[in-house]
Amino acid sequence: MRRGAPGALWRAAVVAALLCGIGLLPWLSRTDPALTVLEARSAERDPAPEVLAAIRGELGLDAGPVHLLGRWLGGLLHGDAGHSWISGGAVLPAVTTALGASLLLMAAALAVAAVTAAAVCARTLRLGARRALTGRRTGGAAAMLAALPEFLTASVLATVVGVQLGWLPALGWYGPRWLVLPALAIGLPTGALLGRMLDDALPGAFAEPWARAAAARGIPGRHIARHALRRCLPGLLPNLGLFVVGLTGGAVAVEQIFDIPGLGRLTLDAAIAQDLPVLQTGTLALVALAAAVSGLARLAGRALLGPALRDGALVTLHRPDAPDRSRLPLAHGALLLGVIALGLTRDPLALDTAARLRAPSWAHPFGTDALGRDLLARVGHGALTTLALALAVSAAALLAGVALGLAPRLSRALVDTANAVPSVLAGLLVTGVTGGGPATPALAVAAVAWAPLAAHTSALLRQELATTHLAATRALGAGRAHVLRRALLPAVLPPVTRHALLRLPSVALALASLGFLGLGAGPPSPEWGLLLAENHPYAERAPWAVLAPAAMLAVLGALAVTASGGVRWPWPGRGGRASSAAREEAR
Fold it and tell me: How many other C-beta atoms can be found within 10 angstroms of the C-beta atom of residue 424?
């Protein structure tokens, strides 16, 4: 109990700081909370001083944010989360109902994600079981699937499968049939990402001595594949837990498209309307869910690894292989650079109302948008800002994630709390503190993008600390700096870097989407996320308007994943005896 007390106090302090920041949101944003509430209740009503004064008196705004926060926390102790400032209804029943809908959607999405992940790594499992696994897998198709925006996938499914074909209902929340399309929209990209991470770790498990010994004894390949999967899952479970929370509170676009009364949609609407009781209660529910899921993931990881984790008897999953020499990254990079170069030669702001929503042609290879602007020009010019900012944020998230992941006692509470905050809510908080501007999306996404990387780092670190070769290294008198540089970083940094590369397209999309919501650079900026959002209403009439930026995001995802095959730790004596000996030992 005493050992866990500091961690519990640290977690409570982090959650309290988050809730206080949300409680101060109306005052931090330098807006009158009464005016925002009035606009949310009735946009047509005149904001007369006496009307605003009546709202302040009704809500107790004159007492200040500290009093409001204290009153809300005091009510929670008695099971009362207060009443909505907008509707006047009780907050706790509304949040509980929305949480139930989100959890049901999350469970269905996880089932789809599990099937997708199994399909992504099926070939590696089959070849590994036959001892025929050579070279690295590219994973380009999985990367493209993971790079597709959820709201675009949801729109296509709703329009084609739900409306045109009529196979499944596209709107509403009335039964199991209404679950299928939103679960596919969320689960397919998530499963592709999880499957790619698992596929990256499996070769290390098949190269361990137990796998070679099992194959030599004639144990069936399916049993070897099952144990290899069990060996790799503990490193993936923390990120699976993060996905659970992210799917519950972050599937806002999918909930809006399919008209699902989920917690993410409820929290976002409350944040925009500055309905503090609903916003704080919804956020607290997400934080509590994050803490519970994180604890279960750690317990499941320990159960899967068994006594080997406690006794320090694991074998490292890291293999000092040579970098991948595939030419696929060059092909994807050339395609991306070619599109950007062609787009830069055109004017992205030139209007031609007579050429609205034109199909692709020689004059407009990507077609035109609703204002007659050339989409190739907008995609090319938008790439400069989108990719540069995405690379900078991804690099910052990687550095922060690795640094904090190497200190799990410090980062565990931060990871759970940051993951419980959707990027849109983070954008609103950053806007309140900084006043908004072009840098707001970068700060908001960077504030939460490091969490999955830190969780991945911590999981790999825990396993590497329990390996036999690390115990031998320490027994020989190696100091902490030597252990960190020669043992821990080579095992942790390459897979986490590949993980960061896989998330690069989603970072690019999140940045531009926040800009479209008014939290950064807005129209007529040609950022890719803005192009998707602006042309989304015309997806059925002019599908090329959304397919062009979506295709570039898919190419970016394929480039990131195929390039990750070249991410390796710079081993000493590369190409010489030391490197050869290390590879031979790994075999």
Answer: 22
Cα–Cα distance between 387 and 566 in angstroms, integer? 20
Count of Cβ atoms closer than 10 Å to residue 272 Cβ? 16
209 versus 116: which is more confidently predicted?
Answer: 116
pTM of the entire predicted model? 0.78
Distance CA 536, CA 194 (A): 27
Token couple for 380: 């090319």
| Cis peptide preceding 524, ω within 30 of 0 | yes
For residue 399, the one-letter residue type is L
> pLDDT tens digits for 332-389?
889 999 999 999 999 998 888 888 889 899 989 999 998 899 999 999 998 888 888 8
For the chain, what is the radius of gyration of the CA atoms? 25
pLDDT of residue 175: 83
Helices 489-502 and 375-405: crossing angle in degrees, nearest 10, is: 150
The contacts of residue 227 (CB under 8 Å, 6+ apart) are 205, 210, 211, 214
Q: Which of 286, 305, 207, 285 is nearest to 247 (CA)?
A: 286
Contact call for residues 152 and 550 (beta carbons, < 8 A): yes
Most confident of 43-52, 183-192, 572-581: 183-192
Q: Residue 374: what are its φ and ψ, rounded to 5°? A: -70, 120
Cβ within 8 Å of residue 2, ≥6 positions away: none
Q: If we measure between CA atoms, which residue out of 502, 284, 516 comes closest to residue 398? A: 502
Report the amino acid identity of residue 183: A
For 242, the 3-state DSSP assignment is: helix
Tokens of 346: 């055109």
CA distance 493 to 198: 16
Q: Which amino acid is at 89?
A: G
Three-class DSSP category at 467: strand
Q: How far apart are the first and last CA of the chain?
A: 43
- Count of Cβ atoms closer than 10 Å to residue 439 Cβ: 14
pLDDT range class, residue 137, cuts 50, 70, 90: low
Give 471-506 pLDDT, tens digit per residue. Answer: 888 887 888 888 888 888 888 888 888 888 878 877
